[in-house]
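step 4 of 6: structure.
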Amino acid sequence: MSKRWTILSFSFCGWKGGHPCNAPSHHDRIARIAGQKKVTRNVNMEKLRNGYLFPEIGTRQMVHMEKYPNAEVISLGIGDTTEPIPSVITKAMAEYALALSTREGYRGYGAEQGDKRLREAIAEKMYGNMGIQASEVFISDGAQCDIARLQMLFGSSMTIAVQDPTFPGYVDMSIIMGQTGEYDDKSNKYKGIEYLRCEPRNHFFPDFSEVPRTDIIFFCSPNNPTGQPASREQLKELVEVAKVNGSIIVYDSAYSSFISDDSPRSIYEIPGAKEVAIEISSFSKFAGFTGVRLGWAVVPSELSYSSGFPVLRDFDRIVCTSFNGASSVSQIGGLACLSDEGYEAIKDVISMYKANAKIIVDTFTSLGKEVYGGVNSPYAWVHFPGQKSWDVFTEILEETHIITVPGCGFGPGGEGFIRVGAFNSRECILEASRRLRSFFG
Amino acid sequence: MSKRWTILSFSFCGWKGGHPCNAPSHHDRIARIAGQKKVTRNVNMEKLRNGYLFPEIGTRQMVHMEKYPNAEVISLGIGDTTEPIPSVITKAMAEYALALSTREGYRGYGAEQGDKRLREAIAEKMYGNMGIQASEVFISDGAQCDIARLQMLFGSSMTIAVQDPTFPGYVDMSIIMGQTGEYDDKSNKYKGIEYLRCEPRNHFFPDFSEVPRTDIIFFCSPNNPTGQPASREQLKELVEVAKVNGSIIVYDSAYSSFISDDSPRSIYEIPGAKEVAIEISSFSKFAGFTGVRLGWAVVPSELSYSSGFPVLRDFDRIVCTSFNGASSVSQIGGLACLSDEGYEAIKDVISMYKANAKIIVDTFTSLGKEVYGGVNSPYAWVHFPGQKSWDVFTEILEETHIITVPGCGFGPGGEGFIRVGAFNSRECILEASRRLRSFFG
C-alpha cells in the first residue's frame, strides 16, 4: 500500500498527459519492482486440506470408470437425486419459461429475498403453526450457498462448533472466512473449531459440557451423514444451551422431509428457538431440485446481536449485496412443489427413497454390520470398526463398483464409517444389495 | 472461548447422564451469565452505510407510488430488462424443464463449475480468438454473485481499487469482507479503498500515477454507471499497470454486448491480459436473464499468486464449496442464447435498447444537459453541475414520475450526475422523453 502505481510505458497514453515517468531511470526502477509484488495467496485458502469432499469422490469415480470401462458403477455416494420430478412441477416451470417470451409474461429481476408468494407458501406450509412470517423467509439457490452467505454475515471473528461428523461445508466455509487456525494432523481437526462428537454411545447428540462455548453452533438434523434426527428432548437441550450461552444455532433441515417419526422437522418446533436459531433448508432432496437449485433460510425477527441489532437486517443486506435472488423459473417450480397436488406427488418420491434406504439398512444389517440412520433419512451410516473409511470406500468400489462416501470426509468422528445413500432407482438399489451381499456375505 | 457450555436445566436430558450441574448454585451462576454473552455483530457489517443502492431506490419508488397511486411511474432506474426473451431460448428451457419429469431427461447436480457444453460455447462464442479455454470459464448465477465469490477468494488482507463512480457491489463486498476501514463522512469514501476518479476531464479513465498500488483493481467496462467503454489504448495501459505492479484486475464486462464501436468487448483482447485479469460477465443484460440468473467468470490458468499457485485452483475450490452451480434450466437457456439463432435474436433486442438509449441521450442533449455514455451502453450519464444527485433524483421523480439512479450511489465521483437507463419499452421511453422535455424544456 505504500507504493504508488508504477506504469511501464506511456507510448500509448500520450493523450492523458501528466505522467511523471519519462525519465530513463523509470524503466530500471520498473524492472527491479516487476514480479516482486504479485498478490499473495489468501492464507485462509492455504489452510484448506485436500479437495472438497464431493468433487474428490467424483474424481475417484471417473478414474475408476476409466480403469473398468465395462463396469456398471452404481452411485450410492454424493446425495444426488435420481427420480423424475412430478410433472405438475415441471409443467409450471415450462409454462413460466415460455411466458418469458411474451410481453405479459416477461419478468426481470425479482426481489433479492425471493418471490413473495413463495416466501408466504414456505412460511405457511413448512412452518404452519410455528409463527414464522414470510418476511423472515429468504429464498436461495440452495443450503450450501446459504452457508456461505451466513458465514459472510458472521465474519472472521466468530467461533463455531460443528457436529462431528457433519456436512463438510460448515467447516470449509469457516476456514475460508478466516475463523479457524491451521489443520492439526494429529487430531484431524482445524484449530479454533469445536467438534461436537456425535456417535452411537451418546445417541448422536453431543455432550455440551465437554466443549467450550462458541458464538455459532452448526447443527444438521436429520444429520448428514449419520442419518440420525435429533429428538425433541435433544433439541430442547440444544436451544437451552444456545440461549444460556448466547450462541446462535444454524439449523440445517435439508433432510427434514425424510422424517417419519415424531422427531421435529424444524428447530422452530422448540419453544424459544426463534430467539436463538437460524434455519436453512432446501428443495434439493425434498423435490429432486439438486440441479434446479432452490432453497431457503429463515432468520427470525427475534434473533439479535448483543447490541440488540436484528440479525435479520444484516442478513437482508448480505442477500441484497452478494446475491440477486434464485432463478425465477426455479422459484415457480418451488411454488408448484408447495401446491397441494405437488406436495402429494413429492411425498411419493420421498417414500420411494425411504424404501430404498430400508433395503440398504437391511442389507448391511443382515451382513452383521452396525448400521445407523436410514430410517428418517436417505443415508445409512455403516460402521467398519478398526478400518479406515477411505480403505472401505476403495475396497467396496474395487470389488462391487459401488460408490459410497468415506465417513472421515465428514470429520474425524466419521472415521471407520461409510455413508451409503438411497438416491437411486429401485433396480440399482437391489443390484447394489446383491453385490454387497455377495462380497461381504 | 474460555468458558465451557452452560446448560440451564437438565430435567429433560436425564437419559444422557453425566452432567456436572445438579448443585443449587448452578442456576445462580446461569442467571448471572445469561444474556451477557450474546453474539457480537460483525464489525464489518457495522461499517456499511445506508441501504444497498438498488433496494433503496425500490423502496423510494414504492413510497412514491403510494403517494401518487394514479401516477404512471416510468422506471429508467435499476437496470432491469423489460423486453421478452426470444422464444428459441425459452422453448429450450421449457423443453428441458418438462424432460425433468422423465427418466431419460432427469438430471440432478451438475458440475459446480457449470455445464461443459456451456463453458465451451462461452469460450468459443465470446472469446473466439483470445485463447480462453472452457476449463477457465466458470458458469455462475450472475456477476454480482461472482463478485462476492471473488471477494471470498481474496480475503480480508487484500487492498482494492475501484473506479469512481462504479457499480457499488465491489465496494460493499469489500467492506463485508473486512478489506476496508470506516466510512469517512468528509470524503464520502471508505478508508483503505483506492477510488480511481473517472470523469469527463480524464476521458473516464483514471490517472494511476495519482493513487497507491493495490492488490486488486475492479474495472467495469462499459462502465456502470457512466456508460463509457474503455478504449483499447486505455485497456493496454490498465493491463500494463497491473503487470508491473503485480495487481489482479477484476474486469466486469456485463455490458459488453452493447459495444458497437471498436472498444474491446473483453479484457482478453489485450495481449498479456490473461496473466493479470479475471473477467466476470453475465447473461442478464445480454439476454434479458435478470430473473433467470446466469453469468460466468473467466479465471485464466496463467494467473497466479506470488508463490506461483494458480488463482484458478483456489477459485475452483471457492465455487465447489460456496456454490452448487447455476440452475440447470438457466444453463440450457444460456446454451440456446449462444446458438446461431438465439444469438441473432438477442442482437435485435440489444439494438432496440440501444435505440432507446439514443432517444434518452438526444432528449437530455436537446435540453442543454451534458450527457455521457448511452452509445456503447444502455446507460446515459447526465450531469447536473452544482446539484446533489439525490435532489435531482427526487425532483425528476416528483415532477415527471420517472425513476432514475442518483450518481452519488456509485461513489463520490458520481455526485451531481444521474444515471438514466434505456431498459424499457419504446413507448415508455418516448413518454419519458416527452415528460422530461416538458419539465426541463
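step 5 of 6: annotate
 - Residues 51-80+345-440 of chain B form a domain with the Aspartate Aminotransferase, domain 1 fold (CATH 3.90.1150.10).
 - The CA atoms of residues 162 and 218 of chain B lie 5 Å apart.
step 6 of 6: archive
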